[in-house]
Automatic annotation (TrEMBL):
<protein>
    <recommendedName>
        <fullName>VWFA domain-containing protein</fullName>
    </recommendedName>
</protein>
Length: 299
């Protein structure tokens, strides 16, 4: 009888042992799949080519706005290549691209931007390609800004419409870690997209902030009570991470920076974006670590 009970107990223990082993294998496999997906980067850069980069309208003796942008893009590119080089060649499956909204009228700029859609996978990955990405991005983006400044035809920035109609299709892929870098002074304005719904709008300008009397000490109370902000976009973007760079508030209102960030924070949260940061314009040398830490997930 004792032997029978012992055999049964041993059998049950073996069953439990192998069940646990299989469960652990399954969990390890699921974790590996998740980690694999998070290791595939899909980085998009949205550039605001409005008159904020104009040397005539917004000269900056320390460093011009367009030069700061180029410095930020350089840091993004370097983070991307650092990520690629940390992977084995056969594991590489990553993308980086650059967008404008609206697209500039200059065909040369649009042509160059297409060359900046880089997709690297196990079939085309090579040391030569990986080593060329930073130089390609630096030279091509410099050409874009130089052409835009030379044209001197700034048609505005329609970031609201980009989120409304393009982000989900163009910046989000299911099996990637999706990151959107936005280079903007924080203001949004495009002649063709001026929508207002009560105190909500598709645009934000210094004039609108002044008009809404969000330039006094109790701006936050008024902002929340009277429901100011961008018009919500009914899209779940929880699988998108956003880094906004270059916030440059008007100096006429001491509360302007906080108001701009309140608009953006409320809007991004409404789209269920969990991981985002909003940073002021600063010298590229000061922003380099912030940008790379965000992209490479360094705490």
């Amino acid at each position: 009888m004792k032997n029978t009970l012992l055999k049964i107990s041993m059998s049950l223990l073996l069953v439990l042992f192998f069940s646990c082993k299989e469960e652990n294998k399954k969990e390890a496999k699921e974790t590996a799949v998740k980690n694999s997906v998070s290791e595939n980067y899909n980085i998009s850069i949205l550039v605001d080519l409005s008159d904020r980069i104009s040397l005539k309208k917004n000269p900056n003796p320390t460093m011009e706005i367009y030069q700061r942008d180029l410095g930020y893009i350089k840091s993004v590119s370097e983070a991307f290549t650092e990520h690629l080089k940390s992977k084995r060649m056969r594991q590489i499956n990553d993308k980086m691209q650059l967008f404008f909204n609206p697209e500039p009228e200059n065909p040369e700029i649009n042509s160059i931007s297409k060359e900046l859609r880089i997709s690297v996978d196990k079939d085309n990955a090579s040391k030569k390609l990986l080593n060329s990405i930073n130089d390609t991005y630096s030279s091509k983006t410099a050409s874009i800004y130089e052409s835009a400044i030379k044209d001197d035809k700034y048609i505005g920035s329609d970031i609201w419409n980009f989120f409304d109609s393009k982000v989900k299709d163009q910046c989000i892929d299911q099996d990637f870690r999706n990151i959107l870098i936005i280079l903007t002074d924080g203001y949004i304005f495009y002649e063709g997209t001026q929508i207002k719904e009560g105190n909500l709008s598709s645009y934000l300008t210094p004039q609108l902030i002044k008009q809404n009397i969000l330039n006094t000490n109790d701006w936050q109370k008024k902002f929340e009570k009277e429901n100011f902000g961008f018009i919500p976009i009914n899209t779940d973007l929880s699988n998108l991470e956003v880094l906004v760079l270059g916030i440059n508030p008007s100096k006429n209102n001491p509360f302007e920076e906080k108001v701009i960030k309140a608009y953006w924070t409320k809007w991004l949260l409404e789209m269920k974006i969990k991981h985002f940061e909003i940073k002021n314009a600063d010298l590229p040398s000061n922003m380099d670590k912030i940008i790379k830490d965000f992209i490479l997930k360094k705490e």
